[in-house]
Amino acid sequence: MKTLITALLLCLLSLPAMAVNRLLPANIMAGTLSAVDNNVVTFVKSESSLLNTLVALVIPSGQSYTTAPGLRIFDANNLFVLTGQLPTLVGKTVGITLDLQGNINRIWVLSDEEIAQLQQRQQ
């Protein structure tokens, strides 16, 4: 009975840890991944119009960046995504950060709430 109560208490204590909002860096650039080719990612910034975003899904446009050797990719649940799964992120709204050489070193798949927060931050 004591172990059951202890397990229940541990589960209840872990609930706040599961609901943690992730902190995105201040220098994050939000946009859409329009194409992925090996270690080159084409990124369209979110400041572009809706028409440009739709065209980017069919015809790759935007800025091309090389991925850094230590690229870290996080999904909407803040779990790691392997670099081999990067092509599955094409068309999704993501946030990226660049290293000192101008290569993408981190990618976050953004949720609707995070997109709204970034838009408020930019205003």
Largest sheet: 5 strands, mixed, barrel
Shape: elongated
Could you tell me how far the N terminus lies from the C terminus, measured between alpha carbons in angstroms? 55 Å
- Main sheet strand line-up: 1-2-3-6-5
The amount of beta strand, in percent, is: 25-35%
Got a strand count? 6
Q: Which residues form runs of ≥5 with pLDDT under 50?
A: none
H-E string: HEEHEEEEH
- How would you state the average pLDDT, rounded? 82
User: Into which percent range does the helicity of residues fall?
Assistant: 25-40%
Rg value:
18 Å
SS-derived structural category? alpha+beta
Topology:
Blueprint: H1 2-18, E1 29-37, E2 40-45, H2 50-58, E3 63-74, E4 80-81, E5 93-98, E6 104-109, H3 112-122
